[in-house]
Amino acid sequence: MRAPITLDLHITNFSYPGVSDDRLFDHVAEMAKTAEDNGFSSISVMDHLHQIPPIGPQELNMLEGTMALAGIAARTSKASLGLLVGGVTYRNAALLAKMTTTLDVISGGRAVLGIGAAWFEAEHDAYGFRFPPLKERFERLEDALRIARAMFTEERATVEGTHHSVHGALNNPRPLRGDIPILIGGSGERKTLRFVAQYADACNLFGTSSACSTCSACSTATARTSGAFRRRSRARG
């Protein structure tokens, strides 16, 4: 199942001149509907609890991502909807799969699970989330990917992970398309691209200009990943 994203409106800011808090969501929904009406294939939002640098000071408005997407789902009809991307440290893996499935049902089959290993340590400290070392965050990401796919596609999901497990987990109602596309966000060629090839349907990659000096290695890995996408798509019909 390929992620149905060709042109995405990524909403990173929820503070608008002249828009009061009681009109904030209406304004966001109008933006999303206008984008959809003008050919945007998807709407995405960040997964943060306050604003991040360099977009703006942390005191600016920030809507919780999954709740914002559920509201946008009720005001749109065609665009795919997802976090770009969700931090694996913020939610129990099975709960995230259930929340994404609920968004899929609310939206009529338009949800995309966007997920990554999380990066904003100061935000974790501010809101009481543990910020594990990078190795553990990637282990938790792999657990979440395995659990999500199982809960999206199996009647009762059982997955033994390193940090998270499920045993006969139900996920009813089911995803309306029989599965939900998974998009992984990150910047590392060794772990991120391997996870994309093994577990996901799309990726959102980023990095510094100096990191682009390794583009030849990334291109080789991406070519392998693209081949994996084609094989997965054929296998899933």
Secondary structure topology:
Blueprint: E1 8-11, H1 21-37, E2 42-45, H2 65-75, E3 80-83, E4 86-87, H3 93-107, E5 111-116, H4 121-127, H5 134-153, E6 157-160, E7 165-169, E8 182-186, H6 192-199, E9 202-205, H7 215-236
Parallel strand pairs: 1-2, 2-3, 3-5, 4-5, 5-8, 8-9
Antiparallel strand pairs: 6-7
Spell out the key features of this protein.
single chain; 237 residues; alpha/beta; TIM Barrel; seven-stranded parallel sheet; two-stranded antiparallel ribbon; 9 strands; 42% helix; globular
Description:
There is one protein chain. α1 crosses α2 (65-75), α2 packs parallel to α3 and α6 packs parallel to α7. The N and C termini lie close together (8 Å). α3 (93-107) links the parallel β4 and β5 (111-116). This protein has helices at 21-37, 65-75, 93-107, 121-127, 134-153, 192-199, 215-236; strands at residues 8-11, 42-45, 80-83, 86-87, 111-116, 157-160, 165-169, 182-186, 202-205. It is built from seven helices and nine strands; from the N terminus they run βαβαββαβααβββαβα. It has 237 residues and is an alpha/beta fold. The relative contact order is 0.13. Strands 1, 2, 3, 4, 5, 8 and 9 form a seven-stranded parallel β-sheet that branches. The chain has a two-stranded antiparallel sheet with strand order 6-7. It has a single domain (8-236), classed as Luciferase-like domain (TIM Barrel, Alpha-Beta Barrel).
